[in-house]
Amino acid sequence: MNRYIAGAFLMALVTQGAVAQSGTNSPYSQFGLGVLSEQSSGFNRGMNGLGLGFHEGNQVNYLNPASYSKIDSLSFIFDAGISGQISNFKEGNKKLNANNSSFEYVVAGFRAFKHFGVSFGLIPYTNIGYSYSVTEKVNDANNTLSTSTYDGNGGLHQVYLGMGWEPFDGFAIGVNGSYLYGNYTKILINSYSDAFANTLTKRYSADVRNYKVDFGLQYTARLSAKNRITLGLTYGMGHKIGGSPKMELVSTNVQTQVADTTTYESSDGNKLQLEIPNTFGAGLMFNHNNSLKIGIDYNLQKWASVASPTYGTSANDKPTYMMQKGAYKDRHKITIGTEICPQRNSRNFAKRVHYRAGVSYATPYYYINKQDGPKEISASIGFGIPIINGYNNRSILNISAQWVQQSTKNFITDNTFRINIGLTFNERWFAKWKVE
Description:
Layout: H1 2-18, E1 35-36, H2 42-46, E2 75-91, E3 94-113, E4 116-137, E5 145-168, E6 171-192, E7 199-222, E8 227-236, E9 239-243, E10 246-252, E11 259-264, E12 266-267, E13 270-271, E14 273-276, E15 279-288, E16 292-301, E17 308-313, E18 319-324, E19 331-340, H3 349-352, E20 354-362, E21 367-368, E22 371-372, E23 375-387, E24 395-407, E25 413-428
Antiparallel strand pairs: 1-4, 2-3, 2-25, 3-4, 4-5, 5-6, 6-7, 7-8, 7-10, 8-15, 9-14, 10-11, 12-13, 15-16, 16-19, 17-18, 19-20, 20-23, 21-22, 23-24, 24-25
């Protein structure tokens, strides 16, 4: 019991730091709900996020909650991860570098009953973090300069509790129930070199407190004594998540500093609500004797049916801020990855290491000025290094390097190099010791 309390206390401390940081510097995070976060832990990231068909008992795989049923009966698994990244933004002949780091996730899992596992933790959902400005000449007699300043921060996070059950051999089902929370602020300031021109500020904000539910299924077929294949399926329920998004329009007289503020936060008297999409996933993983795993995942997020808060004008030229469809498009992502561990119980250290690699391709979920947003290609390599001492030979240090490129015609190209570090504590808590 003391260990449970200590583990919960440690998780509470860690999550306080996790929610206070932004994991991106990308200007693309100003669109939609932000940059969609990596929904994977340290071992998945070595395979570039592969995991829908991963059905093993030595890691917490929250990509598919059905996998919790495989957690070893004598283990309590605690996994936490951090990342650091260098991003290079390029537009025409202009280049800019940016660095940041963040606490990525913290999760835990254990077996509650026979063939029934439980997991809980905190993971990110979206990230928003950008700051830049653009200065242009206005075509007037005074050669006035116009400066647009963009600044935004925030994001959404998930605290989840999940369960996985294997009712009969080879077939498992699971569910993750999450408390989805967070907020964002996005600011656009239009200022002018003309001393008589007002400064116009648009401030977009929302504060989410809602739920999220994801379901998972896995079926493992034994092909031979050493070979098996696992099919993984997932579904995430889309729905309105509230947030009360609003826009404040502030016109400031630069000479008197008097500001006039107009707030838009409802449509036809009803509070606006953000939405998340229905999501579907399917994955296959081939496992040869626990030494070679090869898999493929496909994910579909139905963003096209989701409405977005939009500022515009009505038919009678009256300013409006209301939920409208058409800002988003369905997002598709495919990932291929592999893990090789030559011999887990070998005395040769190199043979005990888990070698991982993966590649992905993803389409955007939003439009930019009626054009497709940036497509994403990424690749990673990683290692799972066993930690062995006098009382523990099952914990793993997961290290991976990942390259991600977001690019689209006529807009910024974002190349990011990221280092992910995750530490999986896999302790034998539930064994009954005998004294002879």
